[in-house]
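Input record (one chain):
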Amino acid sequence: MEASPDAPRRTRAALAEIPARLDRLRVTPLRPLTNTREQSPALPPGYLSPAPSPDEFLIQQRGRKRLPVTWSPDIDLKRSAFESTVRTPPKNTPGRNSPPKLGVTLRSTPRKRLLLGDVERVPLTPEKIDFSDISTPQKFKINSPIKVTPPLKRSRLEKVFDGEYKGPLDTALKGLSPTQLIHMIKKITYKHPDIEQEIRREMPAPDLSPLEEKLYYLKSNIFKSLPTTRLTSKTDSPAYSRVAIHLAAFKKCLVEQGKILVDSQHWESVMKYVFLAWSYARSTPVWDNHIHNAHRKQCFKALGNFCMTALKKGSFDKDFIADVEDKLQTMEADSNEVQSCLKYIRGQLRDL
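The corresponding structure, as predicted from the sequence alone:
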């Protein structure tokens, strides 16, 4: 069979159509779509991704904004500062042109706010608050069978007992404070002046045994706190640091007890207390560092002042003053505070 003259022409036409068909099958590289309607000409519509719905488009618009491709620290700093100052106004705003109301602060969250208007805020105090209209809601009330005790029943505990005490008198006096005893005795002597002279005659001298017991107890605490080992010193700085608090307590008790006796004006008892407390102060440790002996010196100084006050205000006889002079001479070696007392006593003895 012979080839027809049109066969070469058809073959050439088919070969010429191959490049055109290959161009249709060629896939172009994907690029970001700037518009949802923009599609690749080489692919059929809807092949890459379907068109977003209107709701999805709104959600994408509300989302967080992406950083630009060309990022710069300066640009990002300005953008963050701008976003922090500019906030979305809340809903239900009266109008952008209306002046802002007093006492209302715009916030970023679209919540409902109470608009106070142009009323000036006045600070509330307990005196300005009216609690008469405040009542507990019915659903929060508790039906308790226990009733509130009226104030009249509580006043029974505060009532002063005016009846006569029928117990032993000495037992009753033990429960009274020194101030109450003083007030009671003054009241009785004011009503019955003749009893005052009898009370003065029967009044005993102050008992110094409780005062001595306190001094003995505090002094024993000082020696109990000292180190007991033989290899350590009992008068150095480490030993003082262990007993410093007990030395301060001893000095405080000694001074306070002396002041009470001086205020009571029992001058003979004051002199006896001076000699008693001086012996306890003398028995306290003498430290290597002279600065640590400050409590000891302060005790001697306070006792010297008590002695001088008693000598000046008390009326003692010649024998008692001579006995005091002998005792003060033995105390002169401990402290120089007694020199002024000795000088005053010697002057009194010359005048007698």
